[in-house]
Amino acid sequence: MIKIYHNNRCSKSRCGLEILENSGKEFEIVKYLDTVPSKEELREIITLLGIEPLQLVRKNEKIWKENFKGKELTDDQIIEAMIHYPKLIERPIVINGSKAVIGRPPENITTIL
């Protein structure tokens, strides 16, 4: 089952959702601001994406700049920050089986459909 971690306020996330809707494939929407991923889920997403936790952070968010920018943080601390402030999580994230992409640009999503 395809899964999209979605924030309806984000234009890129809305574009990603549209790509999935137009694909004709079944998918699940996870509104991650309402249903925050657990530490284990975030670790799994990061592994599937093949990135470091910091690469999943929206570094231009005010929360990041005010609380975390310039600090030496462990991977665990970065993941904890995303759990406490899910707005920091880059979006949209689409997972299809063992493949995952960040939909920036949204066209990236088509590579795993």
Task: Give a concise summary.
With 113 residues, the chain is of the alpha+beta class. The protein is 35% helix and 16% strand.
Description:
The protein is α+β, with helices and mostly antiparallel strands and 113 residues long. Helix content is 35%, strand content 16%. It has four helices and four strands. It has helices at 11-23, 39-49, 62-67, 75-84; strands at residues 2-6, 27-31, 93-96, 99-102. It has a four-stranded mixed sheet with strand order 2-1-3-4, with helices on both faces. The longest helix is centred in the first third of the chain and has 13 residues, at 11-23. The N and C termini lie close together (11 Å).
List the topology elements.
Blueprint: E1 2-6, H1 11-23, E2 27-31, H2 39-49, H3 62-67, H4 75-84, E3 93-96, E4 99-102
Parallel strand pairs: 1-2
Antiparallel strand pairs: 1-3, 3-4
Indicate the percent of residues in helices: 25-40%
- The strand order across the widest sheet is 2-1-3-4
- What is the arithmetic mean of pLDDT? 97
Content-based structural category: alpha+beta
The helix/strand series, from N terminus to C terminus, equals: EHEHHHEE
Q: How far do the termini sit from each other?
A: 11 Å
Q: Using DSSP, what is the number of strands?
A: 4
Helix count, per DSSP?
4
Low-confidence stretches: none
List keywords for this structure.
113 residues, alpha+beta
